[in-house]
Amino acid sequence: MTKEKKKKTHVPLRLNLLFFAVFLLFSVLILRLGLVQIVYGDDYKREIERTEEVTVNNPVPRGKMYDRNLKVMVDNKPLDAITYTRSQRTTAKEMLETAEKLAKLIHKETNKITERDRKDFWILKHPDEAEAKITAADRKKVTEGELEEKDLYKLQIERITEKEINSFTDAELEVLAIYREFSSGYALTPQIVKNKDVTEEEFARVSENLDSLPGVNITTDWDRTYVFGNTLKSVLGKVSTSDEGLPSERLDYFLSRGYSRNDRVGKSYIELQYEDVLQGNKAKVKNITDKGGNVVESQVVSEGQRGKDLVLTIDMDLQQAIENEIEKQLLQAKKAGNTKFLDRAFVVLMDPKTGEILTMAGKQYVIDKETGKPTINDYALGNISSSYTVGSSVKGATILTGYQTGAIQPNKYFYDTTLNIKGTPKKASYTNMGNINDLTALKKSSNVYMFRTAIAIAGTEYVPGKGLNIGSSAFETMRNYYAQFGLGSRTGIDLPNEMVGYKGTDTLPGKLLDLAIGQYDTYTPMQLAQYVSTIANGGYRMEPHMVKEIHDPVDDNTELGAVVSEITPTVLNKLDMKDSWINRVQDGFKLVAMEQGGTAYKYFGHKSYTVAAKTGTAQAFYDGPNKDKYKDLQATMSLSMVGFAPAENPEVAFAVVVPWAYQGHSSNGLNGKLAEFALDTYFDLKKTRQQADETDETTENKVVTGKEIQQEQAE
To answer: Model's pTM, two decimal places?
Structure first.
């Protein structure tokens, strides 16, 4: 009985211990769960729901360009576009699958595929064969540290055969072309897959299948359109394509300013110079992603705004008319003969008081390599990017330099006859003019007067048969004074890559005399325009500029917005010369054009408007694009003319340059013909516009008067 009791009490004790142990374990578990939920619950919840915010900048259309009369010159043409945006976790396999689906819906050109693209794609399409190209020995080198894992991919690339990379079908190449676009963009940044020649059928098919094309979307892109064709196109500049993106030579510059690598930017000239204005404010989209990189929400931070608009100083009516005339005159001159080297001509019209460029025309005659027929190309850019010996057009600067240095005084007389200088070829004018003063020297374009002036500037005397004691300092003096007019120095125009011209290196006495008549150093047409403007406006060297105003864009995209900035005239320097000296040279220029016997009288002597001008003819050697065809230097004659009108109160200055215009002694007069046409057109347009304004004003007054009469009758 006692044993049985002892046995019964022993079993409950063990059960109690077991229950107690279970109780402790559950208590610990409950305590742990409470700790996790109460103390760390929010932290774990945030980790599970963790998201990342990524802000993406989407490009907007560029600003437009207008001429001074508000005619649109450069605009944006809308394009249907197909884009692809990959997430941060999108795999190459997933992109390939999407590319294969998209290739069945659109046609994609394959001409941009490179050999490396083919090799990368072959590895992607043939992973097993690619893996077989890595040997055990290669793997061992990685293990031993001789190679890195990434080097194995390089070995695969190197071992792909020509046959393998050429094994793709046309359909596979289209997939590759699309995949290439997919993989070239940043994560969460839309990448243009196709924006040129997207057909309505392609656009519709893609639109209908967007649900099965992850990352693919349809949108509207833009392309630059030039309303006036090739007119001034070389100066307006170029914009990079979506494929080009940021230019490599300026990559760091643009990236530091918030650009993306595939952004389209200005590559040259006005598009480049005013990139910060034309680019606009990008649309900003905030993509919220989960920890897997999937976009869970997109929020528009900023709608963005297209670039600001530029109003240029150019008058497109004037520009086009002058360009057409240059083309006509070039073709006629080439047919007339004696123009073996003639292939270009330039005309610049500038407001001498403000520096505004009204016309910057340049044309080049070339033979089409395919057809063998002549064609005329835009070469407006040559006005700042090419320089020439221009001849007597610079004589105004020589006379004023003589005044300023004290070498000559107004009304100084020299006897114009051939100079016989020891060690120098004979120097003469085109005819012996006898005893002449400075005004006659300008009117008839005396070389000898300029030679004697240069000799006096050098501080020496001319003695027939004797040499001249001229040092290099005389060249420096002449060039320093010339630079005050803009000759031989950059004009400061708001365009990149302006040429400064060529300065001769010889300091022989005869070269200084050549410098004085514009037959040694070379100058650009734009420098000539600035030089003559400085004389026209009384001695102020104005900075030429192509942009007149900057305007805010407007929402409807049909008109100009408010003025953001107006480009004000900039004086680079004032000639340190007496007003009477500048006035005297102005008078001399007027004699050239308006008095019989002046070298430009036949072009302007009969006009209703007055002109002050200076002609130039330079003996030069041909150094153009075809110079390699000739063993010896080929002598030729270049023509130029500068001036301003009206002569008494100048409102337009001009420079005409026709390099290598003719050979021999019979001039074709292209400089005068182009200058005459340019000024005739300028004043004709001015008159026509004034009459139109008067007509509009009269019509408006008539309407107002009619309303007033009706009101009176009603009363």
So the answer is: 0.82
